[in-house]
Structures are given as C-alpha cells and as structure tokens.
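Person: I keep going back and forth on a fold encoding question. Show me how you would write down a chain together with its backbone fold. Please set it down just below, with no commentary around it:
Helper:
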Amino acid sequence: MASEAVKRILEAEAEADKRSAEARAKADGIVTEAERKASITVQKRLTDAKTETGKLRDENRRRLEEYTNKAEEDCAAKLAELEKTAASNSDKAVEAIISGFFS
C-alpha cells in the first residue's frame, strides 16, 4: 500500500513536471509570437513614417521652389522699377547739367 501511494505521488509529480514544461513552452511560444508581431508592427510604422517624411520633404521643396520663384519675380520687378527711375533721374541730371552749362 505504501508503495502504491509512493507510486501515485511520483506519477503525480511527473505529471505536474510535464504540465509545467508544457505551460512554459506554451508561454515561451506566446512571448516569441508577440515579439515577432511587435517587431513587424514597429517595422511597418517605421516604413510609414519614412514614407510620410518623404512626402513632407517633397511638399516643402515644392513650396520653397514656389516661394523662391515668387521672390525672384518680385526682385526682378523692383529692380526694373529702380532701373527705370535711375534712367529717368540720369536723363534729368544730364539735362540740368546741359541747361546749366548753356545758360
């Protein structure tokens, strides 16, 4: 009888060890799968962020080009106006000198 009880205790301990090992393996599998999914999610988000960053850079380059073109047009218009004013003033100065010389 005692040997029968010892035998059952040993079988129960073996069964407990087996179940513990199975539970540990299952837990490890769940953790490994969660890590894999997390890694995939991180990689996807990094890819999405890089794509969005590229779009923003392209948009900023386009806007900078538009701003630069507008600024160059404004500068060219102001320069033409200044050149016109300078030429007019130069003509007036020459006329004043000539009329002063012959007066």
Summary: The chain has one domain: 1-76. Helices lie at 2-102. The chain has one helix and no strands.
